[in-house]
Amino acid sequence: MASYPFPILLFLFLSISLSESKLSPDYYKQSCPEFDSIMRDTITTKQITTPTTAAATLRVFIHDCFVEGCDASVLVSSNSFNKAERDADINLSLPGDGFDIVVRAKTALELSCPGIVSCADILAQATRDLITMVGGPYYPVRLGRKDGLISLASRVEGNLARSNMTMDQIIKIFASKGFDIQEMVALVGAHTIGFSHCKEFSDRLFNYSKTSPVDPEYNPRYATALQKACKDYIKDPEMAAFNDVLTPNKFDNMYYQNLPRGLGLLASDHAMVKDPRTKPFVELYATNQTAFFKDFAHAMEKLSVLEIKTGRKGEVRHRCDQFNNINT
Ligand code: HEM
Ligand SMILES: *[C@@H]1O[C@H](CO)[C@@H](O)[C@H](O)[C@H]1NC(C)=O
Ligand SMILES: *[C@@H]1O[C@H](CO)[C@@H](O)[C@H](O)[C@H]1NC(C)=O
Ligand SMILES: *[C@@H]1O[C@H](CO)[C@@H](O)[C@H](O)[C@H]1NC(C)=O
Ligand SMILES: *[C@@H]1O[C@H](CO)[C@@H](O)[C@H](O)[C@H]1NC(C)=O
After folding, report:
1. Keyword annotations for this protein (predicted)?
2. Is 151 in contact with 320 (CB distance < 8 Å)?
3. Which of 61, 136, 147, 258 is 20 to 30 A from 194, alpha carbon to alpha carbon?
């Protein structure tokens, strides 16, 4: 101990605490100057060839952030020692394109600046770039996240909203992550893109109640079309429907306009326009896309730094699907 002069200890202490607090959009400016352009090129190529990528990535991102924070814990694969987050029993059926985009970007980045860029930063930046590419708002992503050291299927339950939950339960989950009701309604506007598998809403289509086979809250023509699309969903679990039936691939405020017309796909979507706590915000965003974009951008910026790990609380993974010490 005596061999370390006091000023060096002080310097070490200062540099650790600085690196822990210093998150910035320019984080990789010196260490990986090509970060922005590599991300943009990877995303553009993938989204053009596979238009489901934007929604897939956004969904993987929110699942990452709501369980253990935005630390790429969702990207880790299970092994014989560890059943990882992405394989939770709640079967999230997380979309493969959301994982693939991170692998592609990581591969390109490791060639340009090996060992520098975290998987958590890649996922956060990819999500922002993809939202913008499909017409959504831009927001700054502060960088410098480390990749988490924990990924456990057992930590998933209770952290994610499900389509069959009551509004009370859904509000509680978002509140536990620091989001108020208006922020929650803005975030759920993400359902303006992407799709849902039939099993997530089939109880609204078949054998709904004693008096009605289908949820009477659905627009009747929409319900008929969904019944047809999901007719064989038990035999073919890949069957799915667009979350926003009118403009499925465009990030806009159509999701909110759909809800009062009975065009909300999931029970939780429809609940947003029924519940008096959320309805005013649905109405605001349905009539004012600028207000939606502004609030969505703010909420995403907040989501992007949820419980992030910095300094020694994480690492920069060599491979996004594996901890660097694979025995942990
Ligand atoms: C009330 C809260 C929410 C519930 C109950 C919910 C539930 C769901 C369900 C069941 C699906 C379909 C998954 C599948 O069948 O594969 C889905 C898809 C999706 N969710 Fe949510 N979600 C909620 C909030 C959010 C939020 C806050 C975001 C992002 C900010 C989000 C982004 C997405 C996206 C982008 C998709 C489409 C995925 C794809 O096309 O691959 N969701 N959601
Ligand atoms: C969960 O979903 C994935 C992807 O759709 C599927 O391959 C896997 O078999 C499912 N796991 C369980 C336990 O249902
Ligand atoms: C929601 O559905 C899942 C299965 O899809 C079930 O395990 C769970 O108990 C249901 N939750 C509620 C609140 O009904
Ligand atoms: C609806 O209920 C009937 C009677 O309980 C059953 O025979 C039928 O298979 C159910 N249909 C679906 C699509 O679940
Ligand atoms: C829409 O929302 C924006 C942003 O909050 C606001 O500045 C604008 O005045 C609103 N427009 C209308 C027509 O209310």
Report:
1. Calcium, Disulfide bond, Heme, Hydrogen peroxide, Iron, Metal-binding, Oxidoreductase, Peroxidase, Secreted, Signal
2. no
3. 147
Catalytic (active site) residue 197: no
24-159+305-313 folds as Peroxidase; domain 1 (1.10.520)
pLDDT at 212: 94
Q: For atom 7 of ligand 4, which residue has the closest CA?
A: 207
Assess contact for 58 and 303: CB atoms under 8 A.
no
- d(C-alpha 136, C-alpha 189), whole Å: 11
Backbone torsions φ then ψ of 244, nearest 5 degrees:
-115, 100
**Whether residue 225 has its Cβ less than 6 Å from ligand 5:** no
What does the block give as tokens for 229?
A: 């699309």
Residues with CB under 6 A from ligand 4: 206-207
Give the model confidence (pLDDT) of 19-33 as tens digits: 445 799 999 999 999
| pLDDT, position 290 | 98
For domain 167-302, give its CATH number from 1.10.420.10, 3.40.50.2000, 3.10.50.40, 3.20.20.70. Answer: 1.10.420.10
**Entry pTM:** 0.91
Report CA Rg, the chain: 21
User: Under 8 Å CB-to-CB from 182, ≥6 apart: which residues?
Assistant: 281, 295
Listed in order, the ranges of the chain carrying CATH 1.10.420.10 are 167-302
How many other β-carbons are positioned within 10 Å of the β-carbon of residue 48? 10
Residues 294 and 277 sit within 8 Å (Cβ to Cβ): no
Whether ligand 1 lies within 6 angstroms of the CB of 297 is answered as no
Give the total residue count for the chain. 328
Backbone angles phi, psi at 111, to 5 degrees: -70, -35
